């Protein structure tokens, strides 16, 4: 009997290779899907807890002044025991818009506290603070809490501001 030199791959080994390649492909796709879908949904869920957590009060302290080119906003924080890193504020007037990040103890160009201090102080739980934004007299203000280093865009609230 003569031995043949077989150079092909047996059916069992071919099947095992296909199974391993399929498992590796599924794991790679799962990592992508998890990062893109599940992590995003968790981030949105955590931000949805902050809906109506901060609001702009419609008082005499929230207004825009075209003469002095400034906007004043009184921002209230709810009584809920949630921590935020800061407040993202966007002020718009016609075709111009300015964005600000208010973080405790920091300074932000063009922003002062109502008492004239340039060091930002966030409202305490259940309290409010008034901020003066120089350089823009805007009639629309949008705010969102900053949580885990990101602005919670999906819970942004827009407010129409009256003139002073």
Primary descriptors:
164 residues, Immunoglobulin-like, alpha+beta, 6-stranded mixed β-sheet, 34% strand
Descriptive report:
This protein has 164 residues and is α+β, with helices and mostly antiparallel strands. The protein has 2 domains: 1-48; 54-163, Immunoglobulin-like (Sandwich), CATH 2.60.40. It contains 1 helix and 11 strands, in the order H-E-E-E-E-E-E-E-E-E-E-E. Strands 1, 2, 3, 6, 7 and 11 form a 6-stranded mixed sheet that branches. Strands 4, 5, 8, 9 and 10 form a 5-stranded antiparallel sheet that branches. Strand 8 (140-147) and strand 9 (150-151) form a beta hairpin. The longest helix is centred in the N-terminal third of the chain and has 38 residues, at 11-48. The relative contact order is 0.20. The mean pLDDT is 84.
Please give a quick description of this structure.
The protein has 164 residues and is α+β, with helices and mostly antiparallel strands. The chain contains 1 helix and 11 strands.
CATH C-level label of the largest domain: Mainly Beta
Kindly give the count of domains: 2
Percent strand equals 25-35%
Radius of gyration: 27 Å
Uncertain spans: none
CATH-scheme architecture of the largest domain: Sandwich
Question: Which series of helices and strands comes N to C?
Answer: HEEEEEEEEEEE
> How many DSSP helices?
1
Give the total of beta strands. Answer: 11
* CATH homology superfamily name of the largest domain: Immunoglobulins
Give a topology summary.
Layout: H1 11-48, E1 54-56, E2 63-65, E3 70-77, E4 86-93, E5 96-103, E6 111-113, E7 128-134, E8 140-147, E9 150-151, E10 157-160, E11 162-163
Parallel strand pairs: 2-11
Antiparallel strand pairs: 1-3, 2-3, 3-7, 4-5, 4-8, 6-7, 8-9, 8-10
